[in-house]
Description:
Elements: H1 2-26, H2 30-33, H3 35-41, E1 46-51, E2 57-62, E3 66-73, E4 81-89, E5 94-95, E6 109-120, E7 125-133, E8 141-146, E9 152-159, E10 164-167, E11 173-176, E12 194-195, E13 220-226, E14 233-239, E15 243-249, E16 252-257, E17 266-273, H4 276-294
Amino acid sequence: MKRLLRLVFVNLRAGWLLAALCSAALHLPRLAAAGPAETAGKDWGRVAVEKNAQGLMEAVLENSKIRVRYALYTPYKGPQEIVIREFLIKSLNKNLAKSKIGIDAAAWRGILKEAVVVRDDAERKTIRMVWQSLNEKPQPEEEVSIFPDSAFIEIRYISFNVNSVDLSGGGSTYVVHGADQWVRGYVPYPKHYYNRAEGHIENIVEADAADGGPLNYHGNFILGICDEPSGTGWGRVMPVKAGAVIKLLVSGYEIFPWYRQKHQEFSAYIFAVTGGKAEVESMGRELADRLNQEAAPSPAGDALNHPRG
């Protein structure tokens, strides 16, 4: 009789335990239930804040196609700065940012004061960076994102000083969407390729069209540099409304966002190509349309966002 009672008790306890487990499973948080799949989904790349040999912060964003590193640039004269020193096309082991300076540089900007990963999931990986300001302007701040299996990064310019400088090792052939219809050719620095902010300066007699004229593709500029023999190169897509002045540098561009205007946040893409000028333009158009989808709707009749094919 005692043995029978013991068996009944054991079975009852097992039944209670099973019922408790089933109940707990039904009430598990959704995130916990999906944990392994979400973890696997994040493994498409890498985002990290690292320190170099000098103990200065650097930032790395990487996926299956590109690796981008914000690292130290030390000029012959002047202050050090953290800029894109590596924009690697992994399949070719080609660094598009191998130059005297690099990509996404700027005047009056020093080393990083802060760098933190703010997003790391299946859709994107993002680092927020704050630089030392070397003048009285606000501290430059950006959020830079990379995406799965894509050859581009997105830069959200939250705060900035006077300019943005891209100098590359990706070639020397300029590619500007709409250039064949523009009022001037590829004029060398310090002349102005585009300037809507002022007239009667250098080669500008009257300020250029506020909406960018034929350079405007769906509200955006598409600028690039490529190497004709190999087809490797890079490009930048940014809103016309932000890009007030554009100058051509050797293997790059200098852009003055919101020049002589109140600075506003804006986003831009920087991308890599292996298909030469045609791919700079085609990929630029795709990213311009993507940028428009992510941007807030503009007021009706905004001339700076008038679409041109």
